[in-house]
Design a protein that fits this description.
Elements (H helix, E strand, L loop, with lengths): L3 H9 L10 H10 L6 H8 L3 H11 L14 H8 L1 H17 L8 H21 L8 H10 L2 H9 L1 H14 L3 H8 L4 H12 L3 H8 L12 H16 L25 H7 L4 H25 L1
Helix pairs in contact: 2-3, 2-6, 3-5, 4-5, 4-6, 6-8, 7-8, 7-14, 7-16, 8-13, 8-14, 9-10, 9-12, 10-11, 12-13, 13-14
C-alpha cells in the first residue's frame, strides 16, 4: 500500500483531478512583467475571465478602495484605481480562492481564507519593517503568505479522514497541527503545499517559503528570509486568533503584543533584523487588517 507520502504523490500526479490556477492569471503575470504594458493591456487580459473580472470590479468599488469616489464601471478604470501591483495581488487572491473554494468537507473556508489573506498582508508588512527586505519582493511576500497553508486544503480534499485524525490528535496531545501531521503522516501540510506549488510552477522562492515555513532552518539559504517572514506572519495571525489555534504557536510563547515572543526571538532579531518596536508595530497592523480581510473574503466569495 506504501507510505502516506507515496499515496500523496499518486494523488497529486492525477493530472485530471489536480486543481489548476486560471490561465488568465498566468497571462496577467506575463503582461505585468513587460514594462511596456498599459492599463488597457492589463484590462484586456483580465476580461478573458469574466467571473474574476466582475469580482475585481466589486472590490475596486468597495469602501476599502473607492471610499467616497465615483463608481468605476470599466475594467481599465479599475486597473487605474488599484494600480498594477494591487491588481496582481487581488487577481491572484481571487483566482486561488475560486480554485479551492469548494474543496474539502472539514475546513471552515471563511476562517481559512481570512487567515491566509491576513497572513499575505502581514508578510508584506514584515518586509517593509525588516532589515533584509532586499532579499525578496513584496509580491513574493504576498503570494507566499496567501498560499502558506494551501496544503491543508489539499489534505482535506484528498484525505479527509486523515485530516480529521490529525485534528483530533493535535487537540488531545496539545501539540501543533504541524507536529501531529509529521507524527501521524510523516509529512506536514507545508510540504504538501510546496509540492502542489512546484507542480503549478510557482516561483521557487515562494514554493520554498510554503514548504518550510514551520522549519525555516531546512530552507535554502538564499530563500530563508522569505521563509522566516512567512513563519512570523503565520505566528502573529495565529497568536491574534486569526485562524486555527492549533496551528503554529510554539509552546510557552507569550502574547504577541508584548514584544517578540520567545519562540521567534532568534528569527526576528538575527535573521529578519526586527526590533521589539518593529514587531509590536507589525502586530498592531495585523490586528487592523484582520477586519479588512474578513470583509474582502465576503466580497470575493
Amino acid at each position: 500500500m506504501g507510505t502516506f507520502r507515496d499515496r500523496l504523490e499518486r494523488a497529486l500526479n492525477r493530472v485530471g483531478d489536480l486543481p489548476v490556477l486560471p490561465s488568465a492569471l498566468h497571462r496577467l503575470r506575463q503582461a505585468l512583467s513587460d514594462e511596456k504594458t498599459s492599463a488597457h493591456d492589463v484590462a484586456r487580459v483580465m476580461e478573458q475571465d469574466p467571473s474574476l473580472t466582475a469580482k475585481v470590479l466589486r472590490v475596486a468599488n468597495s469602501i476599502y478602495y473607492a471610499g467616497t469616489t465615483a463608481t468605476v464601471t470599466s475594467v481599465q478604470s479599475a486597473v487605474a484605481r488599484l494600480g498594477f501591483s494591487e491588481v496582481n495581488r487581488l487577481f491572484t487572491t481571487l483566482a486561488v480562492i475560486r480554485t479551492f473554494d469548494h474543496m474539502g468537507p472539514h475546513l471552515d473556508h471563511n476562517q481559512f481564507w481570512k487567515h491566509s489573506l491576513t497572513a499575505a498582508i502581514t508578510t508584506r508588512v514584515i518586509r517593509r519593517h525588516c532589515g533584509t527586505s532586499d532579499t525578496f519582493s513584496e509580491d513574493d511576500a504576498y503570494v507566499a503568505g496567501l498560499l502558506h497553508d494551501i496544503g491543508l486544503v489539499v489534505l482535506d480534499q484528498y484525505f479527509p479522514a486523515l485530516f480529521v485524525e490529525v485534528s483530533v490528535a493535535a487537540h488531545r496531545r496539545r501539540i501543533s497541527r504541524a507536529d501531529a501531521e509529521c507524527r501521524i503522516l510523516g509529512i506536514g501540510h507545508a510540504e504538501i503545499g510546496g509540492s502542489l506549488l512546484r507542480r503549478w510552477r510557482i516561483r521557487a522562492s515562494v514554493a520554498e517559503a510554503v514548504t518550510w515555513h514551520h522549519q525555516p532552518e531546512k530552507a535554502e539559504p538564499k530563500h530563508r528570509t522569505l521563509v522566516e517572514a512567512v513563519r512570523v506572519a503565520d505566528f502573529v495571525c495565529t497568536s491574534l486568533g486569526i485562524g486555527d489555534a492549533a496551528d503554529g504557536i510554539p509552546e510557552g510563547s507569550s502574547d504577541a503584543a508584548d514584544g517578540i515572543p520567545e519562540g521567534l526571538s532568534d528569527v526576528a532579531w538575527h535573521d529578519l533584523g526586527l526590533s521589539a518596536d518593529d514587531f509590536s508595530a507589525i502586530v498592531q497592523e495585523t490586528a487592523g487588517e484582520a477586519a479588512r480581510s474578513e470583509v474582502l473574503v465576503a466580497l470575493v466569495r
